């Protein structure tokens, strides 16, 4: 084995925590203006956002690249393609509508507050930068012996902004591949083959570590790369997508490597 590919969000970078904290603080701000339950507001806003997100002409593109509705809540999408330009034009009103309609679902008709919350969420989200406790120590242990590649779905502008927030992380990688820059997202086998070409390795000389069965694991399986599902929350899965390995911490990667090199 010569190379290890890593997903970014919720594999090395604790993106879910950042999003959850930004929602919580934004909804608590709203609760100071009106008598509403912050948790109910968050639930209502997310429901509205998912529904709205699927109505835009950019929806199929965002699905293919791998940009979720809540990245649309704070991303600027300053990427130089027509699809990203369309997305950048859509998201400001999308954010306002999501918060305003979420408030309405709780009986609060306050467009001014909806607009304020739409601005507040990205401001808060940009202060939230978390990596998992074991991320750096594991990368330190792997860097000298293996080629490392970061393979992440999303907008190059937004994913690079996330990486800028954790400046110690990018130098570990020989290559960083972002789906929006490549033109296809995981699980499309073409982006995995592109990663293999950059690393100059064959599929049986690499492993892919990621948290999402439907992107990281499926794509690796389809490309003949050993797949490692990091399942920190011990989610139950069916047998539709089966990883070669399942771990609950990055610290278990050593055991995977030993199995692969037997």
In short:
The chain has helices at residues 15-33, 38-53, 59-65, 82-105, 111-125, 135-143, 156-164, 179-182, 189-199, 213-223, 253-260, and strands at residues 3-6, 147-152, 175-178, 206-210, 226-230, 245-247.
Please characterize this protein's 3D structure:
With 262 residues, the chain is α/β, with parallel strands linked by helices. Helix content is 51%, strand content 10%. The chain has helices at 15-33, 38-53, 59-65, 82-105, 111-125, 135-143, 156-164, 179-182, 189-199, 213-223, 253-260, and strands spanning 3-6, 147-152, 175-178, 206-210, 226-230, 245-247. A 6-stranded parallel β-sheet has the order 3-2-1-4-5-6, sandwiched between helices. Strand 2 (147-152), helix 7 and strand 3 (175-178) form a beta-alpha-beta unit. It is elongated and about 65 Å long. The relative contact order is 0.16. The model has no long low-confidence stretch (mean pLDDT 97).
What's the SSE pattern? EHHHHHHEHEHHEHEEH
How many DSSP E strands? Answer: 6
The chain-level mean pLDDT equals 97
Which spans have pLDDT < 50 for at least 5 consecutive residues?
none
Residues in helix, %: 40-55%
Report the major sheet.
6 strands, parallel
Distance between the termini: 10 Å
**Rg from Cα:** 19 Å
Please, what is the oligomeric state? single chain
Secondary-structure class:
alpha/beta
Shape: elongated
Helix segment tally:
11
Q: Tell me the strand percentage band.
A: 5-15%
Strand order of the largest sheet: 3-2-1-4-5-6
């Amino acid at each position: 084995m010569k190379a290890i590919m890593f997903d970014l969000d919720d594999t090395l970078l604790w993106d879910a925590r950042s999003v959850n904290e930004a929602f919580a603080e934004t909804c608590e701000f709203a609760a100071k203006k009106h008598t509403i339950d912050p948790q109910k507001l968050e639930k209502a806003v997310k429901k509205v956002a998912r529904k709205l997100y699927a109505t835009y002409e950019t929806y199929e593109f965002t699905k293919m690249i791998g940009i979720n509705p809540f990245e649309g809540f704070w991303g600027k999408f300053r990427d130089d393609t027509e699809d990203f330009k369309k997305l950048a034009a859509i998201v400001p009103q999308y954010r306002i509508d999501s918060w305003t309609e979420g408030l309405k679902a709780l009986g609060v008709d306050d467009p001014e507050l909806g607009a304020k919350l739409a601005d507040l969420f990205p401001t808060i989200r940009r202060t939230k930068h978390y990596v998992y406790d074991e991320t750096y120590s594991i990368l330190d242990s792997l860097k000298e012996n293996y080629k490392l590649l970061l393979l992440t779905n999303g907008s190059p502008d937004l994913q690079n902004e996330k990486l800028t927030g954790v400046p110690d992380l990018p130098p570990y990688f020989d290559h960083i591949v972002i789906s929006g820059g490549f033109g296809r997202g995981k699980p499309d086998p073409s982006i995995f083959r592109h990663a293999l070409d950059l690393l100059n390795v064959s599929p049986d000389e690499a492993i892919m570590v990621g948290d999402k069965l439907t992107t990281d694991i499926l794509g690796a399986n389809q490309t003949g790369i050993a797949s490692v599902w990091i399942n920190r929350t011990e989610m139950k899965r069916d047998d539709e997508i089966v990883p070669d390995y399942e771990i609950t911490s990055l610290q278990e990667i050593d055991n995977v490597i030993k199995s692969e090199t037997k």
